[in-house]
Amino acid sequence: MQKKVLLLFFVLLNHTHFSFSQKTDSTKSISHFSGTVSVTNNGISLVPNFSLGKPAAIFITSLGKNKFSIDPELRFSLAGKPWTFLFWARYKLVTTDKFRMNIGTHLGLNFKTASMPINNDTNEVTTVRRYLAAEFVPNYFIAKNVSVGIYYLYSRGIDPATVKNTNFITINTSISNIRITNQFLIRFTPQFYYLKQDKRDGFYFTSSLNLAKRNFPLSVSSIINKSIQSDIAGDKNFNWNLSLVYSFNKNYVRL
What we know:
Elements: H1 2-16, E1 29-40, E2 56-65, E3 68-77, E4 82-95, E5 99-118, E6 121-143, E7 146-157, E8 165-179, E9 184-197, E10 200-213, E11 218-230, E12 238-254
């Protein structure tokens, strides 16, 4: 299975190397297909009990037209086992130079592997837990490359033994295109967030840092997550990862 994941990674890498864009006037219909393929040493989720805690491959794509997009996220361990699948549908409710507001909803599948006795032998069994979620994402741009915003997500567990009610809210800042040299840029995204799962809750600080080169598809990113105060199951006081990310973007024009 590990070979299959790596093969899929290189197929996507090779295929998207030939990505293209076209300049069009506003009267033509434009659809986009974009995304990232990343490999990380530590599969982190900001919801602690959804973290993998092992090396992982993450495939994130976006296919859309005008204000609407479908954005699936498929996450696997490097052993080829599914970790989390999120099937997003998103809509850009407000889009101006200074203010943007997006809304979205998804079906989430969280996979768990456990050892169970079957016919006097121990076997690994994978179960899936389903969640329905909705998000609300307003952002205000202080400057061209600086924004502040709020992110709110509500999730409802469908299956037995799932967390029935999850509330996740952040206060965040994004600073992009920080120039180190003429070729290398950094994006920095710090945020504080509050997480409540049924009767348990916690406060956290997290930050992501991305180092990229102009006109080059590969970048390096890192996430740190620090618990301030929490009684949520699976919580770690401090967690981090390092990822290699391949990005691609295509615009398709319908004449």
